[in-house]
Amino acid sequence: MVTPTLTYTSRAALTLTETPSLGQLQIWWEALQDDPTRYLMYTDFMPTEFEEFLAPVQQGDIQVHLLLVGPEVGGAFYLHDSGTDDTGAAYAWLGVYILPLYRGPWAARAWRLVRQACEGKGLHRIFAAIRAQNQPAHCFITRAMGFTRLGSYTDWSYFEGHLDRVSLFTMRRQDQSLAWVLAEQRAQQFRCRKPPGRAGQRHALQSVESLEKILTVQGKQVIHTRALR
After folding, report:
1. 69-125: per-residue pLDDT in tens?
2. Is there a contact between 102 and 133 (Cβ–Cβ < 8 Å)?
3. Could you tell me if residue 178 is left (phi over 0), alpha (psi between -120 and 50 degrees) or otherwise beta?
């Protein structure tokens, strides 16, 4: 499904599709893997091979909302680790990667479309975990996406070969109890797994300050992605 949305002064229309082609997904994936900040932004368990990511997409375990700007791939918001609680209400965790050219206002506007699509399907409980040192991302998810920060979770998952702290966010404040329960479950799963040997071998010396130069949202330096896998 493709949802037409806004047309900008650049004459490029922003659209969102939930059924991207294989080629579109691969363009997005290769951009993510080539990003020099990739190993700082995601946990060590984030796949590095396209096929490893594609399999759960094809099985329906990951739902991708691909951002298109005109014919160009601009980025993606993807839902993963979804389920239902005891009442049958759905929940999911959110992942994001936006190509550099389309970060900032493009991503903020695209998120509003993703949220509308999710709410239209009855999905209101969406959570995110962001590495603690990634303060610019914290700004983006709260100011541009409207999430609420709930607090910190120590040693949540592996980043660059070692356990590190994340901040937990929820799209709706009233879902905070469920967010903490699910965060604990995911933390236990992460700790039971051995991180891949490749983790932390590339870009380990990059600092958060270098990341702040990459993205801009509403006049502030931000990073709008999280450690989600």
Report:
1. 999 999 999 999 999 988 899 999 999 999 989 988 999 999 999 999 999 999 999
2. no
3. alpha
What are phi and psi for residue 95, nearest 5 degrees?
Answer: -120, 155
- DSSP one-letter string for 52-100: HHHHHHHHTSSEEEEEEETTEEEEEEEEEEEEE-TT--EEEEEEEEE-G
Long-range (24+ apart) CB contacts under 8 A made by 183-189 are: 183/127, 183/129, 183/153, 183/156, 186/81, 186/93, 186/129, 186/156, 186/157, 187/153, 187/155, 187/156, 187/157
Residues 6+ apart with CB under 8 A from 229: 42, 43, 45, 46, 47, 80, 95
Angstrom distance (rounded) from CA 90 to CA 124: 7
| Spatial distance between the Cα atoms of 29 and 36, rounded to a whole number of angstroms | 14
Return the SS3 of 211: helix
Amino acid at 96: V
Query: How far is residue 45's CA from residue 219's CA, in Å, rounded to a whole number?
Result: 32
Q: State the angle between helix axes of 22-34 and 50-59 in degrees (0 to 180), rounded to the nearest 10.
A: 140
Q: Name the token pair of 43.
A: 């946990």
Walk me through the domains of the chain, giving residue ranges and CATH numbers. 2-221 (3.40.630.30)
